[in-house]
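Hi R.,

Here are the chain sequences for the assembly we discussed:
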Amino acid sequence: MIPFIQLFSLYVIIHGASGPGGGFQGGVVFGSSFVLYVVVFDIIGGRKRLPESVNTVLSSLGLYIYAGLGLLCIILSSGVAQYLNYGFLPFTPHFEENRALSIEFVEMGIGITVMAIMVSIFFDLAWKEKNRKGREK
Amino acid sequence: MKGLPTITLILIGLLCALFIYVAEDIPVFGDPNSPPIKYVKLFSIDADALEDPLNRGVIPNNLMDEFERRGFPGPSRVEKVTGMEGEWNTFVSKEEMHYSKEEKYYWIKKEGDKLRVYRYAFVVRWIEKGQEETGTPNMVTYGLADYRGYDTLGETAVIFTAGVSVILLLRRRGRL
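And here is the predicted structure of the full complex:
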């Protein structure tokens, strides 16, 4: 079930431009797959699957992708300084196609951040609960 | 203290009545021609001798003066709405880098012996021009990521901040 959920979430993110969905929704679905893993197996194994260091890096990576695209726009728009006007990025020779492509990248950035943050919050809450029980015993 | 539930019930009933009364004025959901979605009224002007030049595609001088007197940008071109008598679309050309296209801006309609001048709402442009400008078929997506890019960047930052604050509050024992 878990790989199917992850595949579906990737579908939601990538087809966000043509169908319903997008970065936020796809990220939450991807995060929920990790929650399912922890529910089915255990929290130690879940943490091994997605270590804390990777989680922390991922949660800021998405935001960096988003803001970095905007900064690239400022640099490449050559003096106009239009933040987040994706048309100036040199992916394809067409202004409009650049915008369409950059929307996809932005959605991916949003998806990565949302996924990492959801998983991080879930692990923090669940981990603490377990610790408290251990102390009481 | 005993009368409190009764008073609360009456207040809730009054609030419901108020909401229903207000909701009567809301236009039908999804109607593309309802006023808040389509246009904003600017002013009205006497229609005498203005109609013929508008039909020929010329902007009359006194209409132009009226626009400038009220501080609106003057229109550059006018054309009839296809299939409608007494309605005109007016275009404004903008001097903006990489977007130096003219835009559908005013909507002039004849009502009685007056010409009413409306300005199109932003939503009209969003629906009509969005796909060709961004190359994305989904209206919600190009709104979210392109036209409102700043907004979405802020939303993502809010989620990031929420995650970081949960880490700071709950994750102790000196590890990050």
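The radius of gyration of chain B is 25 Å. Strands of chain B lie at 39-46, 77-80, 87-93, 102-111, 114-120.

Let me know if anything looks off.

Best,
T.
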